[in-house]
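Hey, can you fold this?
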Amino acid sequence: MVAKSFTAFLLIFATLVTAQGSLHNVTKKSDVFWQLADLDKRSPNETGNVFLGGQNFTWCCLKAVDNALRILDNGTLVINNNTLSNISISTVHELQSAAQRNQFPCTAKYNADPRGAPEVLIQYEWFAQTCPGWSMSNKSNLNAWLHSLSGFLLPAVIFCLSVPRRRKLHIFRSFFVADLAGIKSYLPALLGAVGAGLIVTIDTIIWLSICFAIAGPMILSGLYEAMLDNRVLEFLREKIHNKRLTLDMRCRCLMLILIGNLDLELDYYPTHIQRRNHDVVPASRSSLNRTPSPTGANSSSIDQGLLHAHSIQQPPVYRPVSISGSSAQSLTRRPTAQMAASPWRHMEVLLYDLRLYDDDDVSRSESPRQWPRHNQPPLPRTVETESSVAKAKTRLRTMLHCQYSFGSIVGAPVIFFLGGFIFAFLTSLDDLGDEDIAESIAFGSWYMIIPHIAIISGLLLAGNNPNILEGVFATERDSAVPEDPSYVLGFLRFDLVYPSCYKVAWQWLRGHTKKQWIDQLLSVYAPRADVDFPGNIDLDDDMEDLRAKTTLSSLDWFLLLSLTLLLLCLPFSLAFMTAFFTPQIGLSCRSLTFLVYFTLQLAQLCLWLWAYAGPPPRAEAEGVRQRGFRLLDFFRKGGWLDRTGFYDPSTAPWHTGDVKHNSVASCFRHLASPRSWTPRTFWCLLYYSLQTVFGLGAVFASLGGTLMQIMGVYRTNMCYTNAQYWRRPYSERPPVVLSVNSREMIQSAIGASLLFVIGRTTSC
């Protein structure tokens, strides 16, 4: 009884207090608050389609305030908080005072008042039924879309254009009018410019999507290549100091660093080969007549026929006598027109004149011996030798200096990108509590991934323009279609960015391609034929040292992954934390977008390591004596997984034969064969299926999320609550905050600004 009396007393007391802060003789709510006038006539359902972006959540907030206000029978206006709507103040005078200082809950803007506007809560079920759909960004609200578009997305486009790539969308030559002298040519020229601009725009969007989709593998592969370059330079520095390497091997290692991002193309031969007569190289240091054998590492029947066809036309020249008394016939140096379009083969031909020792092993082609036979003296340094050395130095220096400077590639875009951050940050200080600016900063922090890719690709030593190498090698090519077109979906034609016989590896494959160059060098020069016992092969100590330096240990891979995750986590952390602590505080639409994207990048990194890191070494290689069967050998090099192609899933089974087929039809023909379903086929299909799913998911999360942020799709009912409540019924979801510039929002914006400053300082 006492409890009931006390409860009744509290209700009476609350009514008296509310009445003291109420207004009397009120006939319409809009007489006190003009914002509430004609709400029903201004309903979004009456002015447009709410499911096509016609919703107006400011109207929803006003409707919630209108529901929270009540006019009593005696004309008194009071705040009647109920289960549908709730205002964080108790009297109408407080609400009127907030309106007088321009802090009405639904239309307030930051004016340096830390109190902010009163907070308006609305029941989610009423909110979803009354205000469905989403609100398209208003052209007058520049903070909602222009900050993200001009401040961050456009600079990211500039950055992605500086990232080297292999192919681009074909632009038809018919778009360009050669003669603009007549007036009749102006209209076709204008239409051609519009068509070319449209194709370039589509191509840029495609490349930006690719950069976003596989940003993690791009960064990891670039760091992998940088580490390999550093190991090769350390190897050269050590061996040159100890005078262990020959001159041609030193040049070969340096050139490997500069051109190791090109496809080896060891088993590709052009269809049309142009035959010419060639000048004879001086006999003192000419190439030996070593017609490649069919079993040679760099040989083929095509090369044999070509060499024979040209060698029979050459006059006899001096034959140097070897230690064993046999003579080796001198031959003209093979021109590049008679060889496969392989930079490795062309490099070997170019450096052959720098050799120290002759070799009568017919299987080595233009790869000379690096060691003498017994007391065999090195070849003398003639005038021709000095000339070849000077030319090799010039070629190496030219290839290095023809690259763009790091500052021009990355420096200017970085300043441009930071300008957008500074502008957004200063704007946010003037409009604390505006969640649109905070969300723009979050997306801008996310776009830092693209500058990180550009920075990594810009610090690599290998050049991106293979035409420079063609000029250095004086490559003779007579290709009818230098663009080497490749078709996607049967009609989208993609040409080489640089029309050349050499092909630049994609950014996410550069580290793996550089390792292939090193492995090719080791496979050719590491084995040494035994002088005393013909047929016995031992290993060159220097080459084995290079193998040890360029074979990454677990600690090396941990370092690479740590740097990669740092470059990925920094943009993600800034974006995620900013979005997480921007009301609606918690894991909601924008923060969930960042989380999904980061998870997909981690999955992409796992796929890259699966395909290109290789199997774990054997226990014997680590100094552990193996006895009997070990369970871990199943996963190591030479185990069942390795033998079935588990550690090379990117190489399809129909790519492993003597004749490679890269078409989709060859894939289906292989899969239709009853014997095609091997473990290697399963690994390949699993790898490319996961890569497709993760890549498309990352594109949707990045560009799709950006587009939804710019358009305003994220301003919908679901995004006003946290993700943990999305599967619950509407009646069980928590209330939604519809007001703007509340005290909590201002405090959250101050914290986000501090987080932004700390993050940008760390990243710079």
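Oh, and this one too while you're at it.
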Amino acid sequence: MTQIDRLSALMARFALRVEVSTAQEANLFVLQGKGDGAHVIRLTPRKTGPARRDPREIRAALRIDWADAENPLAAALPDVLEQSVDPGSDLDPILGLIRAEIDAPRCGGASVLGRLAEILIVRLLRARIEAGAVPRGMLGGLADPRLARALVAMHDRPGEAWSNDALARAAGMSRSRFIAQFGRAVGLSPQAYLRGWRLALARQDLTRGDRIDSVARRYGYGSGEALAHMVRRETGAPPRALRPA
């Protein structure tokens, strides 16, 4: 089978913003590791603060704003993600560039830090997914080579009429086995996951001011009324409440 891209659609749709932060407000740390030149990356997406670390161990402290409260990638991450980085490893040069941007701020530094942090997170997630060291949920599904094909199909083409049969074919599995394995790995049925993914994208587009009928067509809803009903059911508010003031 050809290689699939598990992460690009997620990173493209739900961009992150990064800024240099105090240790108490940060959620991405570069820490001194064991051994000369070694480091530890510590990401805590839903919590800030260094977790009782000696301040002298902190080599860089950044705050990641996931840009959207409904960001499914942030929701899928474990509470704590740590990765050791040895000198000469492929992550080591990225940490060096981050330190250089923090130590000597220059024009465009915020943009550069954002790109570097995005690269860092993608590399962290890639390593965890390939090792299968991820929790149950979206990342657990992406770690399964067959389920990943169905998930990527939904992520890349959310407006298609994805039946369980079609998703099972994308995964190269029987329908019954696909549904059972998807539930074990992701914790949702395929159709429940698809509904959540579509709604997250629709809410994002409505928040930026797109017309509800256009958004409904884009993501496979039968009509603007159907999307409005789904938004009200999930949020308790009408779609107009999502629009910018």
